[in-house]
Amino acid sequence: MIFFGMTQCRSTKMNIFSQRKNWKQLLDGKRTYLRPPRGHHVLSDVFKCPDTRKAALGRQKRLSRLVEKHSKNFFKEKIKILCQHYAHFRRTRGDGSCFYRAFLFSYLENLGLMQDSQAEVTRLMEHVAMSRENFCRLKWDKAYFLNPEEYFSSVVSEFSHLVNSVANGLSSSELYNRSIQEIVPLRIISLLRLLAETEIRSREDDYKSLLPKEMDALTYCCKELRPLDVEAEVLPMRALTYALGIPLRVETVGEGSNCGIQVERLDLFPRSESGKGPLHLVQSYWSSITTPGPQDIGRGNLLSSDGTPLLTLLCRPRHCDILYRSEQN
User: Fold this and answer.
1) Which residues, in sequence order, are bridge partners of residue 90?
2) How far is the C-alpha of 181 from the C-alpha of 22, rounded, in Å?
3) SS3 label, residue 288
4) Which has the higher per-residue pLDDT, 128 or 20?
5) Which of 22, 109, 255, 272 is most buried (CB neighbours < 10 A)?
6) Are 102 and 94 in contact (CB under 8 A)?
7) CA-CA distance, 87 to 329, in Å (whole number)?
8) At what angle do helices 117-137 and 183-202 cross, to 10 degrees?
9) Which Pfam families does the UniProt record give (predicted)?
10) What is the DSSP pairing of strand 86-92 with strand 57-62?
11) Contact, 272 vs 249, CB < 8 A?
């Protein structure tokens, strides 16, 4: 019996090892550009088999649950402020790509609710095509690509297939099931990082004042965008928003403030349709008794009736989740 148990255990371990090996081979075979520069430490389990990791996305939950579960009073008070305007949130896995994952899923959810979703897909892919032109003008380290243009075309094809599936009626439950699978979402997340890098490096003059001192755009991107385990800061958020022409609202719940209990709000809007407008960011603070007024930026599929972004994320230190508005807001 002991011998049988040991044999069964070995067999199970071999199966798990085989699954992980095949999983890594499948990812490595895609030649993702997101291999870090030399000397950069990367988590060893970034490409672990999905059944050994937490789910990439959670189900919608009441936002008030964060008040019940958190121990810090300042955090509870800020969540209470958000509860005045938002009813639910959706957790994302904290593995370094939570912003990109939240951004992608929130966009796809909103796309599925649009009356003219096909027109939005056309607009989106036109932006991707413009990014491709900029991508082809840049020089890429061969260590990151077997064939740069081939890789870009490959992941764009997967992205196009996904957004068209949603536009053609993919149900929300099926979208969720697809999103918690690892291979395709990871590849598309690598595309989002690539689009943000292309935007920053192609318009370096626009972003120069936002880069850390004594760091050029390429160095910044190698350090902050390429490794899968590095969380997005405001700069990559802005770059991705502008690259895809997708407005985004970020509700930030950070550490305590000298100005009392307030929530910092960032509204990120794309450039003008000509692509030549200034970078547009609206920053505001609000509390339980004050709320920023609506920003009448314009109208569009991804803006609410008051001109504010539909895509809304909840950002805590080094983590992003998805927020859902109350029906009355």
Assistant:
1) 60, 322
2) 15
3) coil
4) 128
5) 109
6) no
7) 10
8) 60
9) Peptidase_C65
10) antiparallel
11) no
Give domain status of residue 16, yes or no: no
State whether residue 182 is helix, strand or coil: coil
Residues 6+ apart with CB under 8 A from 273: none
Q: Is the dihedral of CA 101, 35, 129, 246 positive or negative?
A: positive
Helix (H, G, I), strand (E, B) or coil at 299: coil
User: Does residue 186 sit within a domain?
Assistant: yes
pTM: 0.80
- For residues 275 and 130, is the Cβ–Cβ distance under 8 A? yes
Rounded Cα gap, residues 309 and 254, in angstroms: 21
Residue 113 sits in a domain of what CATH number? Answer: 1.20.1300.20
Would you state the pLDDT for residue 17?
39
What contacts 65, CB < 8 A, 6 or more positions away? none
Of 113, 127, 99, the residue nearest 304 (C-alpha): 113
> What is the span of the domain harbouring residue 239?
57-289+299-325
Residue 49 lies inside a defined structural domain of this protein: no
Task: Give the confidence band of 184 by pLDDT, cuts at 50, 70, 90.
Answer: low
Q: Which amino acid would we find at residue 13?
A: K
Above pLDDT 70, what percent of the chain? 70
Number of domains in the chain: 1
Cβ within 8 Å of residue 228, ≥6 positions away: 34, 42, 46, 95, 96, 97, 186, 189, 190
User: Which pLDDT score is estimated for 298?
Assistant: 43
- Using CA atoms, how far residue 82 sits from 14, 63, 89, 92, in Å, is 48, 8, 11, 18
How large is the average pLDDT for residues 287-294? 52
Residue 2, in any domain of the structure: no
Tell me if residue 282 falls in helix, strand or coil. strand
